[in-house]
UniProtKB/TrEMBL annotation:
The keyword Transmembrane applies. The keyword Transmembrane applies. NCBIfam families: flippase-like domain (TIGR00374). InterPro entries: L-PG_synthase/AglD. This is Lysylphosphatidylglycerol synthase TM region. The chain crosses the membrane at residues 60-80, 138-160, 172-197, 203-225, 279-301, 332-352, 359-380. Residues 10-47 have a biased composition (Low complexity). It is a multi-pass membrane protein. It comes from Klenkia marina. Residues 1-55 are annotated as: Disordered. Keywords: Cell membrane, Membrane, Transmembrane, Transmembrane helix.
Length: 389
């Protein structure tokens, strides 16, 4: 379960999408201390004990934690060595035909996301060359996987800047990323709902359906506001009234600034009309993105010589998708593997086959895509366009 869909769920900042440039450690500000400062101050770069601001716990907890994790891993391997050896043997005997099929459907799954964003950009009159957009999607996925906590937001900021560099205006790019994220969320909820219903979980189906509604309602509300002059004026006046008390401290929140800015943004959004055909196509591509990811899991199970029903595959995929959406770890590393393996065992697979199947699936859907994305980040040229007036 990669985070490629979650990449587009956080809204970008049209004003400062990349965030401020932070001073890097070890740069000019970190080299030496200004004259006249006593030794041991933060500016000196020295650590003279208690006065340095770094307590004794901060110096030793990381090495101790690393040692404990290493010892725990060694103990686990020793205790469960027979199971571990069996898993490696199963992985070594993976059927290359099924493995290649899993790789093919996973790459096609990612391409559906590329085609979806290309469709949305072009429907708004934007520029969307397939090569550049493919590199952007893969690169954003690598950022989402590689950065803890802020990976998803950083990925959206990267995608925003790359699409702006192609010559698209900020409003169109923001709209594209927002619609892509909503389509992905609704499609995932639909897949989870169908999977839950197929496995007899009524509660899961209801919750997933409610999640779909919760994702669609705000979009429909915003669409109605942008298409109605009365509703747009009401929203502008409401925001001006709410933010007026804060204008004493923040000049950018003055009614004279907020009113025209919000009105222009809503007017620009209202001018983007993708049409019913493009809207349906975007939804279907988002659905295909998740269905092909589920097929990758099913093919990975077959690659290790196991047999699994479509219902079992749906159950395992839904479990992994739900856990991955919590974003407890970058890329869901650790938690997704545990959830999918447990679901496969619950579906009837022995652990000796469930664990290798999850390893193959995650290698393809997470690490392979992250490696491709890393190459895109390094090799993809950054297009330059004239600054907008």
């Amino acid at each position: 379960m990669s985070l490629r869909s979650a990449v587009m769920t956080d809204g970008p900042d049209p004003v400062h999408p990349g965030g401020p440039d932070l001073e890097r450690p070890g740069g000019p500000a970190a080299e030496g201390a200004p004259e006249g400062l006593p030794a041991g101050t933060p500016d000196s770069g020295q650590d003279d004990g208690p006065g340095s601001g770094r307590g004794p716990v901060a110096r030793w907890w990381r090495p101790v934690l690393g040692v404990l994790l290493a010892v725990g891993a060694v103990v686990a391997v020793v205790v469960f060595r027979q199971s571990v050896l069996g898993w490696f043997a199963t992985i070594a005997s993976t059927d290359p035909r099924w493995a290649l099929a899993a790789v093919a459907v996973q790459l096609l799954s990612m391409q559906c996301l590329v085609w979806q964003q290309q469709l949305l950009l072009r429907s708004g009159g934007g520029v969307a060359p397939q090569g550049s957009l493919t590199a952007t999607v893969y690169g954003g996925n690598a950022i989402a996987v590689g950065l803890p906590l802020a990976g998803s937001a950083a990925s959206v900021a990267y995608g925003f800047r790359r699409m702006r560099d192609l010559g698209n205006n900020a409003v169109l790019v923001s709209w594209t990323l927002a619609v892509s994220g909503v389509c992905s969320t609704v499609a995932l909820a639909a897949v989870v709902a169908v999977s839950s219903a197929a496995t007899g979980s009524t509660v899961g189906a209801v919750v997933a359906s409610l999640a779909s509604v919760a994702a669609v309602v705000p979009v429909l509300t915003l669409l109605a506001v942008t298409r109605s002059a009365e509703a747009k004026n009401l929203v502008v006046k409401l925001l001006m009234t709410v933010l007026a008390p804060l204008s004493r401290w923040f000049r950018v929140l003055r009614p004279a600034v907020v009113g025209p800015a919000v009105d222009d943004a809503l007017t620009s959004l209202g001018s983007i009309r993708p049409g019913a055909r493009n809207a349906v196509a975007a939804g279907l591509l988002a659905l295909a993105n998740w269905v092909l990811d589920a097929l990758c899991l099913l093919f990975a199970v077959h690659a290790v010589g196991a047999e699994l029903s479509l219902r079992g595959a749906a159950l395992a995929f839904a479990a992994g998708a739900l856990v991955s959406s919590t974003r407890l770890t970058p890329g869901g590393i650790g938690v997704v593997e545990a959830a999918v393996a447990s679901a496969l065992v619950a579906a009837g697979l022995p652990a000796a086959q469930a664990v290798p199947a999850v390893v193959v699936y995650r290698f393809i859907s997470l690490w392979l895509l992250a490696a491709i994305g890393a190459l895109c980040l390094v090799l993809a040229p950054r297009p330059v366009h004239p600054a907008e007036g």
